[in-house]
Design a protein that fits this description.
The chain has about 300 residues and is an alpha+beta fold. The protein has helices spanning about 1-15, 20-55, 65-70, 80-95, 105-115, 145-150, 165-205, 210-215, 220-255, 260-265, 275-300, and strands spanning about 60, 95-105, 135-140, 155-160. The chain has 11 helices and 4 strands; from the N terminus they run ααβααβαβαβααααα.
């Protein structure tokens, strides 16, 4: 009987405040969709870093005759065979180095022509202008500075470059988008909480006579407050469900179909469905608990029992 009464009160409350309940559902859905999207964006950046950082190398460019003729570059002349052998031996001695590949000037010129063969600059570049280099793969790409410190400025070394810098701008952009999504989510969350508090307040005021009678007959505070809390929780649960649908639809149309980024941008390893599904229980839990807690706090002020 008590459960039936509570459920009936929930239905009455939702019907009386249908417009505000709908606003709560939409606000919770948008805020949680942004929250889930931010979590997925962070995981996407992490996945891309793991994928690309494992493939990029540290490049140690050696001095050639063109560098030696340029003011400020390689003042001691082009690299000698002895210097090259010593650099290679020292690289292989380092514990952080996984592998070392030597690229000759001819190989560098061939790769350059493959990438920029159609440009005007490529037509005037000659093999002797391309520097030979050591392509070093590290066990931990984060330890690039160890190699840079050891070989930068060394005789025969023109420069040491970390290819991660090429990707860092992309990662910074995605992290910025992630922060922007979190800021918008925070704003939507504040709006949703304000709507929940106002909805509970209006609902409590419209049913003040019923709650007064329940208090006179000895009903407990928790029993009186339960319908209001469950109304807010139910609206939040619906909002969380809508947010889950938005995340699933977004993943489907952005990556698999519609825009189909997985087909158009094959160089990026996108997160899978398992990553999206793993976030849905958290979204549902927050959608259920957040409105219930907000309603409980609001009832202490607006429902005197």
């Amino acid at each position: 009987m008590r459960a039936q009464f509570v459920l009936s009160e929930i239905g009455v409350g939702l019907r009386r405040n249908l417009t505000m309940t709908f606003a709560v559902i939409v606000s919770v859905a948008l805020s949680l969709a942004l929250f889930g999207g931010a979590l997925l964006m962070r995981e996407q950046v992490s996945t891309m870093k793991d994928y690309w950082y494992d493939k990029v190398n540290v490049s140690i460019y050696l001095c050639n005759k063109a560098d030696a003729a340029t003011a400020g570059k390689c003042p001691k002349g082009a690299v000698t065979g002895q210097q090259k052998d010593r650099i290679e031996a020292d690289l292989k001695k380092m514990d952080i180095v996984e592998s070392v590949h030597y690229e000759t000037s001819d190989e560098a010129y061939k790769h350059y022509k493959e990438q920029y063969g159609d440009t005007a600059l490529a037509s005037v570049v000659t093999p002797d202008q391309m520097p030979s280099s050591f392509r070093v793969k590290l066990k931990d790409p984060e330890k690039y500075k160890v190699v840079a410190t050891a070989f930068a400025g060394r005789d025969g070394v023109e420069s040491v470059q970390d290819q991660r810098n090429i990707l860092q701008n992309l990662f910074d952009l995605m992290n910025g988008m992630n922060i922007a999504a979190l800021c918008v989510m925070g704003l939507m969350l504040v709006i949703a909480l304000m709507l929940i508090v106002n909805t509970v307040r209006v609902s409590a005021f419209s049913r003040r006579r019923e709650t007064g009678i329940m208090r006179l007959v000895g009903a407990s505070s928790f029993y009186i407050q339960m319908p209001f809390i469950m109304e807010a929780a139910f609206a939040g649960l619906l909002g969380g469900g809508v947010a889950c649908v938005l995340l699933l639809v977004g993943r489907y149309f952005l990556i698999d179909h519609g825009i189909a980024l997985a087909e158009k941008v094959q160089l990026i390893q996108f997160i899978g469905w398992d990553a999206v599904l793993a976030k849905l229980p958290l979204v549902i839990a927050i959608g259920l608990l957040m409105p219930a807690v907000a309603a409980l706090i609001a009832l202490r002020k607006y429902l005197k029992v």
